[in-house]
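Please go through the sequence line and token line underneath and see whether the fold suits the sequence. See right below:
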Amino acid sequence: MVNFNSGSLICERYILGPLEVNTYLVYEKGSSEGILIDPAEDSQTILKRLKELDFKTLTIFITHGHADHIQGVEFFRKHFPVSKVAISEEDAAMLPSPTLNLSVFIGDAVEVGSADILLKDGDTLKTGAHEGTLSHIAGHTPGGMALIFDGMVFSGDTLFAGSVGRSDFPGGDGKQLIKGIKEKIFSLSNRQVFPGHGPETTIADEKSSNPFFGTFFNI
């Protein structure tokens, strides 16, 4: 586990699963509301932490519907019953479908029950006094979403340190992805970016040095 914070907003990062997905636990210290982002596998370590923090509500936010980001959802639903699963309207059909979530192509089929909350652009998720805004950025999947707080952006597989998400999967669109990042993330003030894989970065660093935003990709 690695800890980050922006004021009283705390982010704990856990690297889970064979594809080394970043699973994040986000909360305000002392708040009864937690946000668990992309639970990539069953994790007793995270479950123990959830019980220590004693959340009264837990939102399991899925940035997009690919299998490597959802494999732990049912584990937490079962063992932390106050959990509610939230995903974009566009990616919701991927949860129960091993074909759409691509698990049929990479190993054991992953089937997740229907989401409790269907998200759209501009919706919010809250922990304590901190309210994060959901921003729809298609291109990696049709319904990819970033969660944006004052000091943090959780970008899923949309934006990485020095790279961007793949757009060659079904439903992907490279130009749409680049355009969405520029309009929805690069337009923000500088803050930390926490991607679905790999190290954290900042908006300023990606605007200045990410090779996917050179002349060839300008739209």
In short: The longest strand covers residues 9-16. DSSP finds five helices and 15 strands in the chain.
